[in-house]
Amino acid sequence: MAMASLARRKAYFLTRNISNSPTDALRFSLSLTRGFASSGSDDNDVVIIGGGPGGYVAAIKAAQLGLKTTCIEKRGALGGTCLNVGCIPSKALLHSSHMYHEAKHVFANHGVKVSSVEVDLPAMLAQKDTAVKNLTRGVEGLFKKNKVNYVKGYGKFLSPSEVSVDTIDGENLVVKGKHIIVATGSDVKSLPGITIDEKKIVSSTGALSLTEIPKKLIVIGAGYIGLEMGSVWGRLGSEVTVVEFAADIVPAMDGEIRKQFQRSLEKQKMKFMLKTKVVGVDSSGDGVKLIVEPAEGGEKTTLEADVVLVSAGRTPFTSGLDLEKIGVETDKGGRILVNERFSTNVSGVYAIGDVIPGPMLAHKAEEDGVACVEFIAGKHGHVDYDKVPGVVYTYPEVASVGKTEEQLKKEGVSYNVGKFPFMANSRAKAIDTVEGLVKILADKETDKILGVHIMSPNAGELIHEAVLAINYDASSEDIARVCHAHPTMSEAIKEAAMATYDKPIHM
């Protein structure tokens, strides 16, 4: 199959810029008032509740499209969970802990001898905090650059066009707007009978700020966050045990990749108790006692730890918004229901990111935000949730986009599989990081790429070639016929593509 034609690419970009008839009535009045009494107004077009990745990106994009915009954020620092207590600080600690682990266990293999390596935890946490502070200030700078009005406070609906804001300064404002976007993100999902105190029983937020390295850490939940935070503290010296109710870690991951991934984590001394249910917890003593039993019932076992991390997923954060007051519909999980234009059932009210169905990922929320304001501005917006990449930032990383092999079998799709191990990749051999592989799934008849899964260092960077290919409906032959620089880790993607429709060269 030949590479995607120039004509097809032009057609794609034309569809991206399809514009409906411009709306003449987009300007509306936004009032900032004290104590619900009007004290003047400015013409604005969009009000956004929430300044996380979805909210702040939507605000900036709206301003760039010429819409006067206000963003309301309760935290007093932009970036949401992701930037303040999620994606960014966790990646800082993952990197710092990996550097320590490399210095202690790997440097000598490369002729670098270090007589003594110690962890300075306060310095490590300070570096993390500095990164967060600089980035949040950077987002605030982008607001100023793009003339986005920023209100620091907790917002809730008075009507479909009015938001009451209790500011962090103790005042009350009413923000009026024609288009209001809910972008309040998600919160930690709690478990029955377990009270998070952020000291001995912690959420991911508390796990980012432990003042001592626990001797024993139990992680409840074998998803992305639990495995990442378990990796951080495991590298620094904690004995880590992961308790998971399901039969597998990261259940949504491709099965073949998942098995190799679990073996890799077990080599790093991470222990797993799968098909296991938590039935009780006792934190009255110096540590924590966790009572568990088989998921299907059976003999109870008591586990002891210094710290327990509850990482059983996240839930939409919509409490206190008074959505029911204006009649916004939600599903049983509390997610706001929207149509393809991110509109709720209430005219003028929209929702994006973690509060709506779809992957709970920061980059998905950003795409939601851009598309939503494009629709508001009378343009064309689009997000395909089947083409959103996911990454586990452990070592090695695991990155995926598109379908898993299990999904294709369930859907009855005939497909070809191409795999290439990094053991056969020259760059990986040269730098002694040969663990992992690239796996490509393509339609058996058309060769269209349906899914790509990578396990390797920096897989989160490598995956984007596959994301681009899937978004352009490329074939495995398309990737195979693209010249890749040598020696690079990305050559493994080319070789896996060759293995999908024909045969690889270097294996």
TrEMBL record:
Gene Ontology molecular-function annotations: dihydrolipoyl dehydrogenase (NADH) activity; flavin adenine dinucleotide binding
Compartments in which it is found: Mitochondrion matrix
Cofactor descriptive note: Binds 1 FAD per subunit.
Keywords: Disulfide bond, FAD, Flavoprotein, NAD, Oxidoreductase, Redox-active center
InterPro entries in the record: Class-I_Pyr_Nuc-Dis_Oxidored, FAD/NAD-binding_dom, Lipoamide_DH, Pyr_nuc-diS_OxRdtase, Pyr_nucl-diS_OxRdtase_dimer, Pyr_OxRdtase_I_AS
Gene Ontology CC annotations of this record: mitochondrial matrix; oxoglutarate dehydrogenase complex
Domain of life: Eukaryota
Catalytic activity: N(6)-[(R)-dihydrolipoyl]-L-lysyl-[protein] + NAD(+) = N(6)-[(R)-lipoyl]-L-lysyl-[protein] + NADH + H(+)
All copies of domain FAD/NAD(P)-binding, residue ranges: 45-369
All residue ranges annotated as the Pyridine nucleotide-disulphide oxidoreductase dimerisation domain in the record: 388-497
Miscellaneous remark of the record: The active site is a redox-active disulfide bond.
Record family assignment: Belongs to the class-I pyridine nucleotide-disulfide oxidoreductase family.
Subunit structure: Homodimer. Part of both the glycine cleavage system composed of four proteins: P, T, L and H and of the pyruvate dehydrogenase complex containing multiple copies of three enzymatic components: pyruvate dehydrogenase (E1), dihydrolipoamide acetyltransferase (E2) and lipoamide dehydrogenase (E3).
Function according to Swiss-Prot or TrEMBL: Lipoamide dehydrogenase is a component of the glycine decarboxylase (GDC) or glycine cleavage system as well as of the alpha-ketoacid dehydrogenase complexes. LPD1 is probably the protein most often associated with the glycine decarboxylase complex while LPD2 is probably incorporated into alpha-ketoacid dehydrogenase complexes.
Protein name per UniProt: Dihydrolipoyl dehydrogenase
